[in-house]
Amino acid sequence: MKQLLKRYWNVLRRPSVHLSFGFLVIGSFIAGIIFWGGFNTALEATNTEKFCTGCHEMRDNVFVELQNTIHFSNRSGVRATCPDCHVPHKWTDKIARKMQASKEVWGKIFGTIDTREKFEAHRLQLANNEWRRLKANNSLECRNCHQFESMDFTKQSKRAVDAHSTFLAGGEKTCIDCHKGIAHTLPDMAGVK
User: Fold this and answer.
1) How many domains does the chain have?
2) Are residues 68 and 109 in the same domain?
3) Does 50 fall in a domain?
């Protein structure tokens, strides 16, 4: 057994001595495809509503709130899922968001928001983090579905037309500036500017 391990170690340590260059190139290419496929499969598996609501913190708090909004149930049957609003669609932005989200796993591990009371105590901080992110990327996730160029102002209220045609067209504001609490309950905003 020891001899066999030593032989394998020698092959791994200096593969070009034992294996042809062509075999190494083809083997590396195939290994790269397998890694890439596995990585993307895992990435997409974590990009589903089922995954997001797999922990009770999300299922019992924000997902319940989403179910009472137009983004969950509406006349057209189009439903926005957690990743639609919280994960960018572009691959590079998605990877960056997933890396940010990996820090949020610590909250799960250490029980920062594992009860309704703890969640409510952190709600403003969590909301501010998300609002800041959406403000920084010009509400990209909103714009994946709601495109300014496609808005029919004749079907909007006068107030909405005024706001959309002034602020969105001019780039002064972005969706999240006016639509906080569109899918989730607003935190206690007392004392917030």
Assistant:
1) 2
2) yes
3) no
Residues 112, 118 contacting (CB under 8 angstroms) = yes
Whether 137 contacts 88, CB under 8 Å: yes
pLDDT tens track for 150-180:
888 888 888 888 888 888 777 778 889 888 8
- Rounded to whole angstroms, the Cα distance separating 169 from 113 reads 38
Any domain includes 163: yes
Amino acid at 145: C
Residue-wise pLDDT tens digits, 42-94: 988 988 999 988 887 888 888 998 998 888 988 888 888 898 988 888 888 88
